[in-house]
Specification:
By secondary structure, this protein is an alpha/beta fold. It folds into two domains: 196 residues, Rossmann fold; 80 residues, Rossmann fold. Helix content is 37%, strand content 19%. It contains eleven helices and 13 strands. The strands form three sheets. The protein has a seven-stranded mixed beta sheet with strand order 1-4-5-13-10-11-12. A four-stranded parallel beta sheet has the order 8-7-6-9. A two-stranded antiparallel sheet has the order 2-3. α8 links the parallel β10 and β11. α3 packs parallel to α4 and α7 packs across α8. It is globular and about 60 Å long. It starts with a strand and ends with a strand.
Length: 308
Amino acid sequence: MTVEHGEGPTGVADGTWWSREVRLRLPSPVTELADDRLARHDVRLLVKRDDLIHPELPGNKWRKLKHNLLAARQGDFRTLVTFGGAYSNHIRAVAAAGAYFGFATVGVIRGEPHLPLNPSLAYAVGRGMRLTYLDRADYRDKDAPELLARLRSEYGEHYLLPEGGSNSLAVRGCAELPAEITEPFDVVCVPVGTGGTLAGVAVGLPPGRSAIGFSALKGGRFLAAEVERLQGAATGSVTANWRIEHDFHFGGYARRRPELDVFAADFATRHGLTLDPIYPAKMMYGIFALAAAGGFAPGTTVVAVLTG
């Protein structure tokens, strides 16, 4: 059952900031998935398909970038500079956004350069992004004033996006998501990498609803403080309607274990939906595990956001 669906051109509502038109599927569709493993616990699952917003700007990547791109255009910046790992979807999305909306882009990549480029970095370069590299020690200090001054010296004045794109404007964009859900629900579940999506979704929830984030990081206990920091920066306060689950990282970022692969393959067979193993598969595994353990009250409707 499709609960909500929409598609159309963007640009007019957000100001004359587009250098060329891009079509976004907003609001993203919400579809109910019937699964006997949840039904036996009286849990209903809706899936919000943010992965379908745009093939190159999917899910939370668009929501995080939207208001940042507007701020960059209003500030008359011509270049976007951001940080990420060699397989970062954020790096890909910023490269695509630059190509669509007329910004030069620079990706500061963690680690040493390797040729040939992997598919993610090759895509970014193909979209016009310039790559520069930091060894892991320097990357840990990527916010150091000396490094930021060096980037300004090398690339001129630019709009700086943090790793993963999570900042106060990203929170604002992600906070728009709950209003798109027209079906009654109780809990929204999202994957967590940097905390921006969870911070924003929790801010945008109506009273009586809650959010659960599923950390994809091993040792991600710091993420709760990051969600609080992001909410404070965006709104001046912190909400109490969210929590983070830390038991479903399967070894850490971009890592997986056989039980996750078995779950994802079975999920694809049952529902015709392939889950990306880095974020959504871990979240979905966690939702089913919580349901089996009685983690949701009978009658709960859960919305799982596929962030792409």
